[in-house]
Design goal:
By secondary structure, this protein is an alpha/beta fold. It has two domains: 315 residues, ABC transporter type 1, transmembrane domain (ABC transporter transmembrane region fold); 239 residues, Rossmann fold, CATH 3.40.50. It has a six-stranded mixed β-sheet, with helices on both faces. Strands 2-1-4-5 form a four-stranded antiparallel β-sheet, with helices on one face. It has a two-stranded antiparallel sheet with strand order 7-8. The two termini are 47 Å apart. It binds adenosine-5'-triphosphate. Adenosine-5'-triphosphate binds next to α12. This is ABC transporter ATP-binding protein/permease. It is found in: Cell membrane. Its main location: membrane.
């Protein structure tokens, strides 16, 4: 893998994508058939217009009576009215079907993405995933809302109009067909040339998003290591690739339209010349020749639209394939093993690395006894957060095993895992909604007294009491902004409500300030009482309160023992301890 070729999620073949779309449309077959009938009615009504106009031309041309005009004029009025009424109803029905199918598809894809282990998503790239569920969903959505109904209408209109022309005079219909080779030429070229170009455009956009997410996500590290110019260069390269891919795709569209206009010119010219000749030979009336030309001109819109839509359908198919590709990332099957005997955590010979990267954990052996609190201490990058994520079952080791009460985590179902072990990471997320809703994410049936009890245990009652609407106050995006300490307390309260036997905590005291950190330490101590706990300690006071401290360096455990013993042993912990005491 080169530096500039990130791993992305899989892409489905157009056939697989169409199959999934078909499945999403299946529950709405009846509404779709009704909408199709209404559309056919609309086009059918429009077919009466050219002959009626032709008849009017004949009446005027031959100096007919004024009363003769009534019939064609009534036909014109009724056909226009029916066309108008049916078309608005038909569009509405089709748009509804499209929206419902899209909602189903979006739920399927998002549901699958959420059920995937974090490692699978990280391997493919979160930027790529974001681009798929935003850009690609928009493209498919636009196609289903507008493109798909217009495509149906154009196809019906084109076929029926050619039928109307043939019913008028088969020779004039044949004359119109002279344009077909131009349309076929354009469509064939477009269908063969454009799919890879549109797929490349989507891929380039995905890679650009991926690069932006990487750059913004690693903002601090990039600044600290002065990697800004390098990341700017990479972003430039990917943006340039996306720009080139877009221009190539647009070029084929221009080529396509030039062929279509050639078809229109040839078809109309031939119909007019043959019409004039037939009139001259006395084989057709001026009105019939006019109607034939009008029929052919009525083909411009549907064919132009079909052309336009081929572009949109191609582009939407490429997006749909990327969306459906998410369904192809298989969640590693987790059959559900036996209930753990107890809450002993046992790590044996654990080795781990991210995606295809080097090992960041090596030969980790660790046993945490039921009820024991173990603190992980070490320099930044030593592997503490990674080890915590493995113990919470988020990642699986490359080698070695992690067991809870004798049951390997890898063999436990996600539900069992979530029931036994809860992880609180440094970046706590407060979901948009009321505070009570946010807390009930941990236990949907939690009663208000239980919620209040949990808030009291984590020390959040005083500030929650001051919120304008108490538990019904809206928090998260667009709502009341919680401080980092408050957000951590909410995460701890969620843990209390979920009540797991094992707690894994990545201490987030860095942003809390020293008063906030002390407050959080006290909240944590109350929540962890009685549970088996592994905590990543960023402050040595947290480590000093644990039963055992484990020191990590370069992905290995280099020292462990009770903090009071380690402080005087003269090893890495006592060095850290003394340095910290001196700097206080
Ligand atoms: N998502 C990731 N993808 C690739 N490498 C990663 C990822 N997360 C961490 N690493 C790498 O794994 C190693 C261990 O990182 P980890 O975050 O576990 O260390 P840490 O001891 O928790 O550091 P800190 O105290 O800064 O959080 C580091 O070299 C880091 O760059």
């Amino acid at each position: 893998m080169t530096d500039l070729a990130p791993v992305t999620l899989p892409v489905a073949t157009p056939r697989q994508a169409r199959r999934i779309l078909g499945q999403a449309l299946r529950p709405h077959r009846r509404a779709a058939s009704l909408a199709l009938m209404v559309l056919l009615g609309t086009v059918g009504a429009g077919l009466f217009i050219p002959p009626a106009l032709g008849t009017l031309v004949d009446i005027v041309y031959t100096g007919g009576r004024r009363a003769e005009l009534t019939g064609p004029l009534v036909t014109l009025a009724v056909a226009t009215l029916v066309q108008g009424v049916l078309s608005s109803g038909g569009w509405l029905l089709i748009v509804q079907v499209g929206e419902k199918a899209l909602a189903g598809l979006r739920e399927t894809v998002l549901g699958h993405a959420l059920s995937l282990p974090q490692a699978e998503i990280e391997r493919g790239g979160t930027g790529d995933l974001v681009s798929r569920v935003s850009n690609d969903v928009d493209k498919v959505s636009e196609a289903l809302r507008r493109g798909f109904p217009q495509f149906l209408w154009s196809a019906c209109a084109a076929v029926l109009t050619v039928g109307g022309l043939a019913a008028l005079d088969w020779r004039l219909a044949l004359a119109g067909l002279v344009s077909l080779p131009f349309y076929a030429w354009a469509a064939r070229g477009y269908l063969i040339v454009s799919p890879p170009l549109f797929a490349a455009e989507r891929r380039a956009e995905g890679e650009r998003s991926q690069q932006l997410v990487e750059t913004l996500g690693g903002f601090r590290t990039i600044q600290a290591l002065l990697l800004g110019p390098r990341h700017l260069r990479r972003t430039d390269v990917r943006s340039e690739a996306a720009r080139r891919a877009s221009i190539k795709a647009i070029d084929t569209t221009a080529w396509f339209f030039s062929r279509i206009h050639l078809g229109e010119l040839t078809g109309t010219g031939t119909v007019l010349v043959l019409g004039a000749w037939l009139v001259g030979a006395g084989d057709a009336t001026v009105g019939e020749a006019t109607a034939a030309a009008l029929y052919f001109i009525r083909l411009y819109d549907p064919i132009g639209l079909l052309v336009n839509l081929l572009d949109e359908v191609q582009s939407a198919t490429a997006s749909l394939s990327r969306l459906v590709g998410i369904l192809q990332v298989e969640a590693t099957a987790r059959p559900g093993g036996p209930e753990p005997r107890d809450t002993t955590l046992t790590l044996r010979g654990v080795r781990f690395g991210y995606a295809d990267g080097p090992d960041v954990l090596r030969d980790v052996d660790l046993v945490i006894r039921p009820g024991e609190h173990v603190a992980l201490v070490g320099a930044s990058g030593a592997g503490k957060t990674t080890l915590a994520a493995l113990v919470a079952g988020i990642h699986e080791p490359r080698a070695g095993s992690i067991e809870l009460g004798g049951t390997p985590l890898a063999g436990m179902s996600r539900e069992d895992l979530a029931r036994h072990i809860t992880l609180i990471s440094q970046e706590v997320h407060v979901f948009a909604g009321t505070l009570a809703e946010d807390l009930r994410l941990a236990d949907a049936d939690a009663t208000e007294p239980r919620i209040r009890e949990a808030l009291s245990l984590v020390g959040a009652s005083p500030w929650v009491g001051l919120l304008p609407d108490g538990l019904d106050t809206r928090v998260g995006t667009g709502g009341f902004t919680l401080t980092p300490v408050q957000a951590q307390q909410i995460a701890l309260a969620r843990m209390v409500l979920r009540n797991p036997a094992v707690a894994v905590l990545d201490e987030a005291t860095a942003e809390a300030g020293s008063a906030g950190a002390r407050e959080l330490e006290a909240s944590m101590a109350r929540v962890l009482a009685g549970r088996t706990a592994l905590l990543v300690a960023h402050r040595l006071t947290t480590a000093a309160a644990a039963d055992r401290v484990v020191i990590m360096r370069d992905g290995r455990i280099v020292e462990q023992g009770p903090p009071s013993e380690l402080a005087t042993r003269g090893g890495p912990y006592s060095e850290l301890w003394h340095a910290w005491q001196t700097n206080r």
